[in-house]
């Protein structure tokens, strides 16, 4: 991963892309650096992710509430001000929200399991 000089982020100027879920839509605003991705993500009302994600993330809930469901059946409810963290390939998960949510999601090479590239 390369060094990142100080910079402020004006999210209103970052392009928003649309991603369809099984139900609902997610909107991503993404900054990509070498080995690091930072996203502001909004899930619409009734959003259910279209896949089980194996990627590691740091997820912080900025507004609303959502559930992070693990493939094994456990469900964690996160509300404004709460976060979760998981490394790559440790827990397949998917997001669900009834009323919509806004998240800050950070992921990258630092979340890879030891010994994996």
TrEMBL record:
It comes from the Bacteria. NCBIfam families: DHCW_cupin. This is DHCW motif cupin fold protein. It comes from Pedobacter boryungensis. The lineage of its organism: Bacteria, Pseudomonadati, Bacteroidota, Sphingobacteriia, Sphingobacteriales.
């Amino acid at each position: 991963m390369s060094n990142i000089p100080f910079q402020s982020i004006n999210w209103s100027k970052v392009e928003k892309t649309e991603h369809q879920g099984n139900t609902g839509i997610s909107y991503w605003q993404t900054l990509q650096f070498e080995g690091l991705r930072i996203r502001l993500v909004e899930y619409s009302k009734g959003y259910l992710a279209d896949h089980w994600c194996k990627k590691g993330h740091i997820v912080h809930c900025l507004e609303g509430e959502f559930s992070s469901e693990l493939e094994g059946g456990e469900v964690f409810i996160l509300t404004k001000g709460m976060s979760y963290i998981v490394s790559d390939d440790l827990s397949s998960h998917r997001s669900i929200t009834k009323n919509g949510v806004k998240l800050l999601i950070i992921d990258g090479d630092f979340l890879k399991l030891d010994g994996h590239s």
